[in-house]
Structure formats: structure tokens, C-alpha cells
Design brief:
globular, about 80% helix, mainly alpha, about 425 residues, disordered C terminus, Growth Hormone, Chain: A, 16 helices
Length: about 425
């Protein structure tokens, strides 16, 4: 019972429970949206270039938008930012629904809508990640981010599982309505959330505040190294979604109209649930450090395994391991970043983290989608997975054996703002 209590200890805080539900519902909408637009554009164009382009468009706002949202998250009430983002998501879903049923939808129109949807998703992500440390004690951050990952990554399983049959039976317009219902419920949950107001100590101009955030990251060798590694991880191991339709159709010989594509995407989420639930129960600093390095290595090797899979069964097992290892790695790293950051710049640091995470992943998705037209997705997955494994080995040699700890102990005080 004590182990079970430790696993869900952050749920003792009522506002964290509301935030967790917001994460779960909004992310279910994101993954249902992602599955639908990639399937829809691929069935219209029969080209992985466009499916990769849509993934890029939905994540690209993080490149420019996340740092801007990060500054706003340090100066404004973060709940207001989330409300605005949900409203924007509802507008996008309404437009896509209307364009679909009137048969005026085009690939370029879908890219524009995906850009707007991505801006909304980026705003929610920055706000949520910056809010967690204000709702739970510092020694509970790893548990809180692990449970958040269960909700976030777990809906990668639930969203596609629900959306794929809707798409197959009633078309993409039915999934857009389903997503709209999810975001309306999210809107209600945000109104129930009570968050501390941000205390703005200085009256810096916008660009001065933005520059201070970058300076804070540069001044910490361990923090900057961690954020760079996250960017490499996302670009090399997590940017395979744009290639997934052509992988299913050409390498596995299955139709993207079948429910298998949605099931394959959902297995990423199921693996993430397993991995992050295990992580939530771990309180040992030593074990978390080992898991950091192991999950990084397995993340690369499991993507290579997925690329070499030739049957539906082997691809499902491989993608389960992909989802589990990636979720554990990303959960540990976001907790490290937040634990190492003071509240005054938390939004800006989170924004930069998302630039390298979502931003590089979006660029890589587009690149791999374009390459997937002439190069087998198998080769791309195998190559990028093994490359990241080599990078992790180099990181371990440089940092783990030197003066930069992979996972700071919870008792270590956060760096001061300089």
C-alpha cells in the first residue's frame, strides 16, 4: 500500500488533480487531431511529404512561439494563457470540420490550420509544465511529472484508439467533432483550477526578459547540456510519425484506411503508460540516474528495432518499447530542468526546452517525411536510432564521468538567477 501511495502521492493536491485532467483531455485531443490530419492528407495526396509537413506545421510554432509564450507565462496568469489556447483549438477544429464536409479542404489549408493548432498546443504545454512546480512541493516533482506523463502519454493510447474507428466509420469530420467535445470539457476543467499568481519582480521589456531566460540557461552547464540532449533525442528518435503512414502501407503492406494504423500509434501511448507508472513509484536518486541513461539508450535502439520490423506483431512490440523508453527519458529530463530552474524564469526555460524538443522534432518530421518518398522509412528509423545511441554514449563519457550529474539530487538547491 505504501508503494501504491508513493506512486500517486501528487494526487493529494487538489489543484494538481485538476491540472492532470487538463493534461489528459487536451493531449487526447492533440493525438486524435494528429492521427486524423495525417491520415486525411495522406489519403488525399498519397505522399508522406504532406503527412510529414503536417506534423511539422503542428509542432513548428514551438520554434518561435514557445519562447514568446514562456515570457508571457512568467508575466501573466498561466491559466488565462491556457484558456486562450483552448479557444483557439476549438476554432481550428470548427474550421476543419466545415472545410471537410463542404469538400473544400486542401493540403495547404490543412497546414495553416495545423500551424494554428500547434500554437495552441505549445501554449498549453508551456503553461502546464511551468505550473507543476507551483502546485506540488519540490521533493514531489519527479512523481508529479511522472503522473503528468501517464496522463499525457497515456492519451496517446486512448486518443487514437477512439479516433481511428470514428475515422474509419464516419470520416474525419466525426473526429473533429469528437476533439471539439474534448476541448470543451478541458475548458470547464481550467475554470476549476486555482493557480498562484505570478509575482513579477522586475518590469523588464519583453526582449530583455527573453534574453535573460537564454542567459540563465547558458550560465548553467548541466542545464544547457540537458536541453541540447533532449533536442537531439526528439529530432532523432521521436520524429517518426510523419513516416508512419508510408511505413504501414509500403513496408508492412497494410492499408492506412484500416484500424491498424491507429492501433500502432496508440501503442506508443500504451508503452508510455507502463514506463511512466513504473517511474512514478521510484524515489531513489540512484535508480533514477540509471533509468535516465538506460531509457536514452533503449529509445534509440528500439526505434532501430521498429525500423527493422517486417510483421505487424513485431512492429507493435517494438513501438511499445519505443513509447515506454521515450516517455521515461522525457519525463526525467523535464523534471531535471524544472528542478534546476528558479520560479522567476521557469516559463522562459520551459519555452526554450520546447523549442529544442518540439521544434527540432517538427523539422525532423518534415525532413523524414520528404525523404520517405524516395528512401525507405526502415532505413531512416534504423539510422537515426543508432545515431542517437552513439550520441548518448558520447554524452555519458563526457558528462556522467565528470562534474555534471545526469539527475540532480532532490536535496540540491536550485541555481540562483544571475
Amino acid at each position: 500500500m505504501s508503494r501504491l501511495f508513493r506512486m500517486f502521492s501528487s494526487f493529494r493536491y487538489s489543484d494538481y488533480r485538476w491540472l492532470w485532467l487538463i493534461v489528459a483531455f487536451s493531449n487526447a485531443g492533440v493525438w486524435s487531431f494528429t492521427l486524423t490530419v495525417t491520415m486525411q492528407v495522406y489519403n488525399i495526396t498519397h505522399s508522406s511529404f504532406w503527412s510529414g509537413a503536417l506534423i511539422f506545421a503542428s509542432m513548428a510554432p514551438s520554434i518561435v512561439g514557445a519562447p514568446i509564450v514562456g515570457v508571457l507565462a512568467d508575466k501573466l496568469e498561466r491559466r488565462v494563457l491556457m484558456l486562450a489556447a483552448v479557444v483557439l483549438s476549438l476554432i481550428v477544429l470548427g474550421v476543419l470540420y466545415s472545410m471537410t464536409i463542404t469538400h473544400v479542404l486542401s493540403p495547404m489549408g490543412m497546414i495553416i490550420m495545423s500551424l494554428m493548432f500547434g500554437l495552441a498546443s505549445s501554449t498549453i504545454s508551456v503553461s502546464v509544465n511551468a505550473l507543476v512546480p507551483t502546485l506540488v512541493p519540490r521533493d514531489g516533482l519527479y512523481n508529479a511529472y511522472s503522473l503528468q506523463a501517464v496522463g499525457q502519454r497515456g492519451t496517446e493510447f486512448v486518443g487514437p484508439i477512439l479516433a481511428a474507428p470514428l475515422y474509419a466509420a464516419f470520416g474525419p469530420q466525426s473526429v473533429y467533432l469528437f476533439c471539439a467535445g474534448i476541448y470543451l470539457l478541458t475548458l470547464v476543467l481550467i475554470f476549476r483550477l486555482k493557480v498562484p499568481r505570478v509575482q513579477v519582480v522586475d518590469k523588464e521589456a519583453f526582449f530583455q526578459a527573453l534574453a535573460r531566460g537564454f542567459h540563465y540557461i547558458r550560465s548553467s552547464r548541466s542545464l544547457s547540456a540537458m536541453i541540447v540532449l533532449v533536442g537531439l533525442h526528439c529530432a532523432l528518435t521521436m520524429a517518426f510519425l510523419g513516416m508512419l503512414p508510408v511505413f504501414v502501407q509500403k513496408d508492412l503492406g497494410l492499408s492506412t484506411h484500416s484500424s491498424f494504423y491507429g492501433m500502432l500509434m496508440s501503442m506508443v501511448g500504451l508503452g508510455a503508460i507502463i514506463g511512466t507508472l513504473v517511474l512514478a513509484a521510484i524515489t531513489s536518486h540512484k535508480v533514477r540516474t540509471v533509468l535516465f541513461w538506460v531509457s536514452a539508450v533503449v529509445s534509440g535502439l528500439s526505434l532501430a528495432w521498429l525500423g527493422s520490423s517486417s510483421t505487424p506483431v513485431s512492429s507493435i512490440v517494438a513501438i511499445l518499447v519505443v513509447g515506454s523508453s521515450q516517455a521515461v527519458f522525457m519525463t526525467i529530463t523535464i523534471a531535471i530542468v524544472q528542478e534546476s530552474t528558479v520560479e522567476a524564469v521557469r516559463g522562459r526555460v520551459t519555452g526554450v526546452y520546447l523549442v529544442l524538443a518540439s521544434g527540432l522534432m517538427s523539422l525532423a518530421n518534415w525532413l523524414y517525411g520528404a525523404l520517405g518518398v524516395s528512401i525507405s522509412p526502415r532505413f531512416i528509423m534504423l539510422t537515426t536510432g543508432l545515431l542517437f545511441t552513439i550520441i548518448v554514449a558520447a554524452y555519458w563519457y563526457v558528462f556522467a564521468r565528470k562534474d555534471v550529474p545526469a539527475v540532480p539530487d532532490a536535496t540540491t538547491p536550485a541555481a540562483d538567477l544571475t
